[in-house]
Amino acid sequence: MVAPKLHILGCLHSDMMSTVQHGKTILQAMVDSSLVSSLHNVKILKLVVHGLRLNHVIDVLRCFPCLQQLHINTLTSYVPNKQNDNPAATTVECVDRHLKQVIVRNYSGKKPDYKFAKFFVLNARALESMKLHVPFSWNNEWRSRQRIKMDFKNRASPNALICFEGTE
């Protein structure tokens, strides 16, 4: 008997991300590469995080080399700048080759948020769209500043779109 292949995994919460168990496989923030094969088929992942901690999310993404959609619900909380340091120079396979859509809920536009978005804009070569749900009123000037901060003109995927959604 063959177990069905897992294609969608949701919802991982940042409080549980240091150790998450999937069957007999245990995910940890720093994941052994031998575990990656068991999650190779996951195409859609939903994460709930306290603040957009880029390095933390990248560690999780390493477990999902064929991920195509990433949904992140960020809970409002203070994240020290050291938590958002630029990621190590190593590549993340799903970001480099497969990730097509990133959706972020509760995008504030503050430095940790736009640095988080900028990572995907500059590195996701297959990216088709990034939807940023903003929980407050914003205008075209604010949106333009955000796109500049993300270095959108130098995006890795020339056809990628960034959409801001929410109250205008």
UniProtKB/TrEMBL annotation:
Transmembrane segments: none annotated. InterPro entries: F-box_dom-containing (IPR055302), FBD (IPR006566), LRR_FXL15/At3g58940/PEG3-like (IPR055411). It comes from the Eukaryota. Residues 3-72 form the F-box/LRR-repeat protein 15/At3g58940/PEG3-like LRR domain. Pfam families: FBD, LRR_At5g56370. Residues 91-132 form the FBD domain. This is FBD domain-containing protein. It comes from Aegilops tauschii subsp. strangulata (Goatgrass).
